[in-house]
Each structure stands twice: as C-alpha cells, then as structure tokens.
C-alpha cells in the first residue's frame, strides 16, 4: 500500500500563534482518515496548508511519495519560530505551489462554508472545475477548436452528476439547491478535477441526522466505487466513528492521539480535550 | 442541433443588420438632416466595443479596472501613427522631426493596389490592439495582485500617467507632443469608386469592426476560458482550489480586454479623424463604466444597448436641450448650454433607480426572448406573479425579523 499523503513536522505559525504545531501524519491509499478536534484546534489550517492556501512555516508534505510542499523558518519568521525541528529542511529548496497546482496534481477539496460559484448552474459548477485539465489555448477555445474535448467534458459532467444524484437539477442555479445538495455538489465539483484524493472540510456541517446518514453512505461509496482516498474534518462523531479507518486528534495545534475509532474512543487525552479536565 | 439553429439565426440577424447599415451608408449623406444618425452609429459602435471590452473585465472577471481610456489612447495613437501618409507627415509633425516614417496602408497599396489599403488599415487596427495588450501585460504583472478598489485606483493612475507621457515633449518625434495627430486614414474618406458609382463605407467599417470584435468576445465568454473568468468573479478561493490558475486567468482577461480597448481606441481615431491625448481623460472611462452599469454588469447585449442609448441620447436626441428648441418647444432661456447634461443625469438616476441591476441585469437578449416566449410576453400574468412572489417573501422576511425582535 502506498502512502497517499504524508505530513512531516508541519508547523503553521501566524505571528506568535502556533495554529498547527509540528504535525506529522500519514494517509494510505484507499483509506478514509478523519482529522478531529475541538473548535480552534487547527484542523482547517492544516487543510489550508496541505492544499497550498497557506505556506507552512516549517515542514514538508509528500503526496504519493513526491514532495509537493516544503518550507523552513526564514526571514522574519526565523526569530519568532517556536516549534521544533527548525533545522530539518534548511538546506533543501523551498516548495510553495499555489492551490491550483496542487489540485492539478490530484488533490481536491471542499469547503467548510460552502463556496459554490453562485451565478452558475449546477452543470456549469462541475464543468468549470474541468478547466484546469483542459488543453485548449485561448484561441482554439474562442474559435471552438476544442469542440471534441468540450463534448467529452460535458459527457463526464453528466456522469459525475449522475453518481452524486444531482442530474435532475443540473440546470438549476447552484444556490437554489437545498443545503444537503449543495454539499453534494461541492463534492461533485471536487471529483471533476480528477483527484486521487479528496479533502472534505466538515461535509456534514449543518445537516440533520437523516442527511448525515445519507452522506455517510455517500462518502463510503466514493471510496468503494471511485477508489478515492479521503481525508476529512468532521464534528459529527457518529459519522467519523462509522466510516473512518483511522483518526487523528488535534488540540491547540498539537497532535494528541491517533489510531482506530475504538482506540480513540477510549483515549483519556481525547476525552479530556473534548470535555475539559476537572480542577480539584 | 438546437445550438446550430441558434447560431444560424444569430448569423442571419447580423447579416441583415450589416446590410441595413450598408444601405443607410449609401442613402444618407452626412449633410442631410438624418446625417446625425450615421455619426451617432459610428460613435455608438466605438463605445459599444469599449463598453463590452470593459464588461469583459469588470463584469465577467470581477476585476474593477478604470484604465480603459489609457488603453484606448494607446490604440488610437498606434493606429494614427502607422496610417499617416508620408506626404502629410511633415505637415502633421509641425514642430518635430517625425521618427516613424512608415504607413501600413501606403506600403501595402503600393504592392497590392486598393486591396492593400484595406489590408494596411486592418493591420494597423490589429497592431493598435497588440500594443495596448503589451502595455496591459506589463502593467498587469504588478497591478493584478491588488483587489477591488485598489486595483481601480492603480489602473486609474496608469491611465493618467500614460496620457501625461504621450503629451511629453521629448516624445514629440513619435507622439507629436501635446499636438494632435491628423490626416491619417479615417472613416469619412472611406469610399470606393467603381465607374460612376461611389460607395461610402464610413459607417459600415466601424460597425463591422465592432460586430466582429463583439462576436469574438461573445465566443470567448461562452468558452471554457469565459467560464473560468466567471468562476474567478464568483469565488476566487474556490476557483483556485479547483485548479484555475488565478494569476494567469486574471492576466489573460486583462490583456484581452485591453486588446479590444486598443481596437476601440483605433476606431475612435478613425471616426473622429483626430487623435489627441487630452481627449482620453478619466471622464471617458467613467462614461464607458456608466454604459456598462446602465446596460447591466455581466451582460454583453446590455453593454451594447447601454452604449447605444447613451450615445444616441447624449449626442442626438437631447441635442435640442442645449440649443434652444426641444420637442418643438422653443425656450432659449431654459434650454441653454449645459441643460442637456442636467436632464441626462436625471434620466440616468431614474434608470438606475428602477433597474437596479441595469437594463439587462446579467441576462443576454436571447435569454430574455426565450423566457418571454415561455411565459407569453414581457407583461403577461406569469411574470407579474413572479414579482408578487418576490415581494411576498420579502414581507415574510421582515415579519420574521420583527417577530424575533419581539421575543428578545
């Protein structure tokens, strides 16, 4: 089994605040891994570092055994750096690709607060996500030299919408969909970028128990039928315990536990982080 | 199948429109009472292209840029400089020793005859667009990292600087300093004499250029790149996360918009038969922005309609308000110089109040016609019902708020 994603000593520091502190984790190919933690633990920051929205202060990220992001404390950050392992990556070149480059390598994400293209239809929302992989230059696009490619893309969009069950609403505006379907559309859009791995940021946020159950089933089917690796952030413990193979727990930016759902449920550190420790 | 039928309808509509323009060009002499129609059509096509190209950037890519007059100025000067005949050159550059002594229409016509002149003009127009694109590319590198208002101010500054540079005396051998450029190939002299018949193309040519350019922009907007532009406009973060290269896409939109702004500038020089930097002020950008907003941000047909309405009203229909007689009413004390602008501003305010998203919103004319067909005309019951629904839901919402307030 290959490692799909590996974080090594990743630290993200905003001024004096260490949002992610020396985080090392790995996700194997075909696994569903959950990243959980109380509010403000640094889960979304970790996502943003992985997908290239932020440049980490220190650390390295490998995607299918190739390094995609690497940085070490430099400039102003050098003095302020509070984490460990600062010297590990000093003599290696800095890699800081923009999010689109990382997406094109096969890592697609969804957002905590839905970020669909509001003025576009459901169909176009998925179609636009294929723009990154289209080979047409602007001239051939204007004069329709890419008609074949586009026809193929449109066919693929219909297929994706069919898998996520949104084909019947394809001509509606994305924002006119109910909340649960907008979440599905975000996943459909991420699938359109042809990813090896999906990063889902709180896919069940704001959903009722029924919708959450459907979503659990749906995420399972993505892994099973489409053979994608999935890393997800989630607060719904039912969903997390149900579908994850392994769980990483963050608290105040630090990794406090990792293991199978059963191990995590019994872990005293995790229980303390979630419920607080009694002062006596 | 449906798509091709639509395309044919559009093609036939354009052909009919162009033949009407051609016929009008022959029937109406500039000195006639209807001669104003031709002038207004010429100017209207210039501004329509300028407005559409600005809409491509402001409306479709969501980059609020105010540098349009600057790019039009570059286009106008490029076109003018490369089409002045060598005989006239010393006459035009009175105080300077002209550095560029080269004219495309002249060079090509020596080799190819009358066809060469047409080709030369076409080359000069395209070159005008390309030079504007070159400037846009260089400016875009640092400036496009800025967002919204800051981008607007940076591009505004660029346009002003360009205007100052073109008026700089040291550049006189090229730009003729602050003096105007004239005597180049212009629309009023675009005529073709076959035997005893003289065909005029003075309106046909600018309208044709505008139609070709706007068609290309429409094709672009509906292509995969156009959709990427809209994605960047709707949500930059999502666009980047879905594999759209932000820097590249913004730069592309900026360059294409400037290319067509450059062509609009060349057309402006052609129509006004002079090119002078002091004409391309910030107020010109604002006029174009006004057309875009009036027509509807994000609608190409809207921009065209906005531009034509603006030019027709300000240059023709409301002329009388400045010169004493309007709609048969003779009141020289009221209808004095400047009164036109007062009325015009009031009309604009009314339009903006009643069409808060512009005349077309973000729809295109074909969409509108289709929805009319479906619901049976623009004023039929279904459309009114929709309005009522919207009003009702707005009322519900306000009740909701008051209810919540009562509880707390």
Observed structural traits:
heterodimer; A: 280 residues; alpha/beta; Rossmann fold; six-stranded mixed sheet; four-stranded antiparallel sheet; 10 strands; globular; B: 408 residues; mainly alpha; two-stranded antiparallel sheet; two-stranded antiparallel ribbon; 70% helix; disordered C terminus
Number of helices of chain B: 18
Query: Regarding quaternary structure, how should these chains be classified?
Result: heterodimer
CATH superfamily of the largest domain in chain A: P-loop containing nucleotide triphosphate hydrolases
Q: Helix share of residues of chain A? A: 25-40%
Low-confidence stretches of chain B: 393-408
- What is the 3D shape of chain B? globular
The share of residues in extended strands of chain B comes to: under 5%
Overall mean confidence score, pLDDT of chain B:
85
How would you describe this protein?
The complex is a heterodimer of chains A (280) and B (408). Helices cover 36% and strands 24% of the residues of chain A. By secondary structure, chain A is α/β, with parallel strands linked by helices. Chain A folds into two domains: 1-106 and 197-280, Rossmann fold (3-Layer(aba) Sandwich), CATH 3.40.50.300; 115-194, no CATH class. In chain A, a hairpin with a 2-residue loop joins strand 4 and strand 5. The mean pLDDT of chain A is 90. Chain B is mainly α. Chain B folds into two domains: 21-28 and 35-294, no CATH class; 381-408. Chains A and B meet through helix 3, helix 4, helix 5 and helix 7 of A and helix 9, helix 10, helix 11 and helix 12 of B.
